[in-house]
Amino acid sequence: MKSEIFANAILKRKRVRFIYHLDEIILEPYYISKSRNGKKVIYGRPNNSSEVKKFEYDKIYNIKILELKKFSPIIPILSA
After folding, report:
1. What's 32's domain CATH number?
2. What digits encode the pLDDT tens for the residues 37-64?
3. Distance of CA 75 to the CA centre of its chain
4. Residue 18 CA to chain centroid, in angstroms?
């Protein structure tokens, strides 16, 4: 379910809000992957930050897609 929500947000360039380590995060999601230790993660740019950060799926709760205007990624996304 988390992957479906994040994939939809990535496709539509919508921000998401979720709880991570008891903190509320607003994120511009970029891509879904697995970490070196095999855990599923999402990479994105948190609100008011210029860094792309990694968030582990098993620590993410209460995901909501925000219906704000679309964002433009700060990293280039290559098309095939």
Report:
1. 2.30.30
2. 999 999 999 988 889 999 999 999 999 9
3. 14
4. 9
CA distance 12 to 33: 18
Q: Which residues pair with 21 in a beta bridge?
A: none
Close Cβ partners of 74 (under 8 Å, ≥ 6 residues apart): 45, 50, 52
Handedness of CA 49, 55, 61, 66 (dihedral sign): positive
Contact 43, 23 (CB under 8 A): no
Please give the average per-residue pLDDT across 8-23, as a whole number.
94
Collapsing DSSP to helix, strand or coil, 48 comes out as coil
Q: Residue 30 sits in which domain range?
A: 2-65
Mean pLDDT of the chain: 89
Does an H or E element contain 38, and which?
none
